[in-house]
Design a protein that fits this description.
Blueprint (H helix, E strand, L loop, with lengths): L20 H4 L4 H11 L3 H20 L7 H25 L4 H29 L3 H7 L3 H5 L29
Helix pairs in contact: 2-4, 3-4, 3-5, 5-6
């Protein structure tokens, strides 16, 4: 059995490489690739782990600040990044990459990143961020969810849709 060419984890040949921060900051990145390879884990599984980690991170981010799960959210974001950086490298080492894998990876990233933005907007609304900031994080919420646009000086929490029949407090009692 021929030894794998671990140099192939890089997308660009050595003579044309540049400083790639996306893999340099993960000091154990090459070790992870070798471990996945030695364990026989397919790149599609690593892509799935990336997506699941990202979705978990979105749920954890959305549960903040009251849940106390900040560290868990940070760690799952990091895991998503590690898996996302590893799947393509693993596909190159094994020579098993394909268009469907690249497509699923790209779509998964888009869904996860969109959910992260939505989760951050939810946290901002719960924290009472100024409405313009919260509104800037909503893409088309008012048109599709019925969230009132409100006054630009309102807090973001006032823009969150309340269930029908929910009581609201008023400044005047008459």
């Amino acid at each position: 059995m021929q030894a794998p060419d671990f140099e192939s984890i890089h997308k660009i040949p050595a003579e044309h490489r540049y400083f790639n921060i996306s893999t340099k900051w993960i000091a154990y990145y090459p070790w992870m690739i070798r471990t996945f390879y030695r364990l026989g884990i397919r790149h599609e599984v690593v892509t799935g782990l990336s997506i699941v980690s990202g979705l978990t991170a979105a749920a954890l981010i959305g549960s903040l600040p009251g849940s106390g799960l900040f560290l868990a959210a940070v760690l799952t974001v990091h895991l998503k990044d590690v898996f996302d950086a590893s799947d393509g490298a693993l596909a190159r080492i094994t020579g098993t990459g394909h268009r469907l894998g690249r497509f699923v990876d790209t779509i998964g990233d888009g869904v996860v990143f969109t959910l992260w933005i939505g989760a951050c907007a939810l946290v901002m609304a719960k924290a009472g961020a100024p409405a313009p900031i919260a509104a800037a994080t909503r893409s088309y919420g008012a048109a599709t969810t019925g969230v009132p646009t409100g006054n630009p000086t309102d807090s973001a929490a006032s823009l969150v849709r309340r269930p029908r029949g929910a009581e609201t407090t008023s400044a005047s009692s008459d």
